[in-house]
Design a protein that fits this description.
CATH topology: Creatine Kinase, Chain A, domain 2
Number of domains: 1
Number of helices: 15
CATH class: Alpha Beta
Strand content: 15-25%
Distance between the termini: 61 Å
Helix content: 25-40%
Length: about 475
């Protein structure tokens, strides 16, 4: 039996140490940006060639100083970091998705400038090898690509966990794409919060989610592309959604830090580590997990190339391995991570970070604005239901489209006001959202419209991967 690595402390102290102690620092205005960019083979019907990925990565690292590196079990580099900036080039779950993460910075324009240095070098390196990066929420070659996780303990464990969904019956109704993490891509932003702002920030942005679906949808999925934010479905109807508190939206309005602690305690834990081994087990709500004496788990035996069963004793310090995936996710860094936005076309890659950073400056005003909304609210639907409605291709008749356009512009005005308050000249990053609001469109609708007019997915992926585009949009 695997033994606990250290002395057991109580659950409340462990939760406080991970989630709340980082909130007790002097307030800052830093923003973190993470971009998950699909890697796709330019040859129709062909999967991503991992050798091409590794070669393009090496070319990038010969140009930029990212000396802190990590290799997987096969010796392939999957992460490189620049200590001076905190920027990272990595691969998310598989070598089919390249992630650019930027060290937290108060000035988004400075971060964007670094992105404009990195991206053309990467794109050129991939292009010369018959591949490209793009800004889409679903990899355009997701059907052809090899569903292989990066060869390390964490990603191997994660895919093994998600593939075990058949053990849990049909409720909730699981989809048949447990490898969705290898082809679905997000644009994630983190903003600093403190103890007195974390609860109102979560509540406000939870209420905002239906409007974000209108502006940012970019992962059409389903037989007819009926889900514009297909990532929502892929997460909630996977094993991550077995406990609905682990992903998606909050179904309650949090009243206090005590409520937030209770919510965290109700989320399920499904993995931990002992002596360098990743252990995976049935998802268990945290309070139930701590009360158990022993738990049956599985781990990967690399020598035998198989999973083996073991027993281990849970303890409170395993909170470090709690993995909730909420749309508004409290992290161990003293930040809220916004996880609901699909990766955006590359020319618009920094819109989500600017949008969230601006509104985070105006949380009380955002609450007031949304509390009187009638364009979506007031028709008998809550925030989570409305997110599901607005993330679909067809909207019900009660949606007042002219009122929705006006409300979206009010939200954008508020975000611009917050960016002006930050004082870094970030407001122009929001400009493309004005057209989306006017036309009630988003990259998912535009992609589907172009496909319906006979364009190829390859042509659209090229446009979505370009730093600038003159493509005219037909959808209105």
């Amino acid at each position: 039996m695997f033994e606990p690595p250290d002395t057991i402390t109580d659950l409340a102290s462990a939760i406080d140490r991970r989630f709340f102690a980082p909130l007790r620092r002097p307030p800052t205005r830093r923003v973190g940006v993470e971009l998950e960019l699909p890697v796709w083979n330019l040859t129709p019907g062909e999967a991503t060639d991992f050798d091409a990925v590794h070669a393009a990565t090496e070319e990038f690292l010969a140009r930029f100083d990212f000396p802190d590196t990590a290799l997987d079990d096969t010796g392939a580099l999957y992460r490189a970091r620049a200590p001076k900036t905190g920027d990272e080039l990595s691969f998310d779950c598989s070598f089919n998705t390249l992630e650019l993460s930027f060290g937290p910075d108060e000035d988004l324009t400075a971060v964007h400038a670094r992105f404009l240095d990195y991206y053309p070098v990467l794109q050129e390196a991939f292009n010369r090898r018959g591949h490209a990066l793009t800004g889409m929420g679903i990899n355009p070659r997701w059907r052809e690509n090899r569903p292989e996780p990066i060869g390390n303990g964490r990603y191997r464990m994660l895919l093994h966990h998600l593939k075990s969904y058949s053990k849990y019956g049909g409720s909730p109704r699981f989809h048949d794409h447990p490898d969705f993490g290898l082809f679905s891509c997000a644009s994630q932003a983190q903003v600093d919060v403190c103890e007195n702002t974390v609860v109102p920030t979560i509540n406000a942005f939870n209420t905002l989610e239906p409007f974000k679906a209108v502006l940012f949808a970019n992962s059409p999925f389903g037989d007819r592309g009926e889900f514009l934010c297909g990532r929502d479905q892929l997460w909630s109807h996977s094993l991550h959604g077995l406990n609905p508190h682990n992903c998606g939206m909050y179904g309650v309005t949090l009243r206090s830090l005590t409520d937030l602690v209770g919510y965290l305690e109700s989320t399920s834990i499904y993995c931990t580590e002992r002596s360098g081994w990743y252990l995976n087990f049935e998802p268990i709500p945290l309070t139930e997990y701590i009360a158990k004496g022993t738990i049956v788990a599985e781990y990967w035996d690399g020598k035998a190339q198989t999973h083996r069963r073991c027993l281990f004793a849970p303890h409170a310090q395993d909170v470090a391995w709690l993995r909730p995936f909420k749309f508004e996710d409290l992290t161990q860094r003293g930040t809220i991570e916004f996880r609901s936005v699909c990766e955006q076309p590359v020319q618009d890659a920094f819109i989500p970070a600017a949008f969230h950073a601006g509104l985070a400056e105006c949380v009380d005003e955002l609450v007031d604005l949304l509390s009187t909304d009638t364009s979506l609210y007031g028709h008998g639907y809550g925030a989570a239901e409305l997110r599901g409605i607005m993330a679909r291709r067809a909207w019900p008749a009660f949606i007042d489209r002219p009122a929705l356009v006006m409300q979206l512009h009010r939200i954008l005005d508020l975000s611009a006001k917050g960016l002006a308050r930050r004082g870094f000249g970030e407001e122009p990053l929001l400009d493309p959202l004005r057209r989306r609001a006017d036309m009630l469109t988003n990259p998912a609708l535009e992609q589907l419209d172009r496909l319906a007019h006979g364009e190829s997915i390859e042509n659209i992926a090229r446009d979505y991967g370009a730093l600038s585009s003159g493509k005219k949009v037909r959808h209105a």
